[in-house]
Amino acid sequence: MKFALFLGCNIPVRVPQYELSARAVLDRLEVGITDIDELKCCGNPIRNTDHKTFILMAARNLALAEKQGLDMLVLCKCCFGSLKKAAYVMKTASVREEVNEQLAKEGLSYSGTAEVKHFLSVLYHDIGVDVLRGKSTKPYKELKIATHYGCHALRPSEITAFDNPVAPVVFDQLVAVTGAKSLDWPLKLECCGAPMLGVNDALSTALTRKKIDDGRQAGADYLCVACPYCQMQFDRVQQMTAPASKSNHYLPSIVYPQLLGLAMGIEGRDLGLHMNMLDISTIESFLK
What range does the domain containing 99 cover? Predict the structure, then answer.
């Protein structure tokens, strides 16, 4: 089992612990990873302002994976949504022909053979929960997790095909294999607020704070995410804004491969626990 790894722009610079922990987990699971240096931005930042350029940027990445004969494993849910959207649009012959004219200048071509998979999808569908449960040799005890699905993997569901957009289960079951309990909390599927950061900071932080407070009220010990934007919002932004809010109580956020990696017996430093802005080291006390 081998994939081309797509990191996107934010993970290497702002959430390096996501990459570090994902690589550690995939290595332990003997999943092969190929790094293609030519992979660039997924196109998401301009998808609403220049649709043709967005499709070209995304399709170029897919063509590079296709050239290697590999499916693409994506860590960022925004990148995942963008690449899935491009693959969907490129099914139209006229669009594919126009884009391939541009890709040919670099000796590339896209035919649609490279499948786009999110990290969670690979774990759930390609590896399987039974295997992951068996690999969790140090499961958690009495750990309660507010599992945050995020927006771009679930919607539009006819394009992303990640999970049921109204009643998803994939992420919950992946949390459960670690021995932790994934809580049923009211704002589970709501936006983290990241898309509004820099546009309307007050609204962005209000959405974030609302989710954090809801997770705490549900009894969560930690939030768990699988997207760099969501992690930045619940980690960095929470740290910056919580002291000025009505409640000074943090609800730390952990990226899923960190959660899984600890249960698999991987050392916290190898998973980048120290890289999180909010301290999550106490999560190790929940391990059996």
Answer: 2-119
Is the link from the previous residue into 156 a cis peptide, with omega within 30 of 0?
yes
Q: How far is CA 197 from CA 154, 182, 187, 200, 202, in A?
A: 21, 27, 19, 6, 8
Q: How many CB atoms lie within 10 A of CB 154?
A: 20
Kindly write down the DSSP assignment for every residue of 140-183, as one continuous string.
Answer: BSS-EEEE---STTTSSHHHH-SS-SSS--HHHHHHHTTT-EE-
Helix (H, G, I), strand (E, B) or coil at 233: helix
User: Domain holding 55: CATH number?
Assistant: 1.20.1050.140
Q: What pTM does this model have?
A: 0.96
pLDDT in tens, 181-213: 999 999 999 999 999 999 999 999 999 999 999
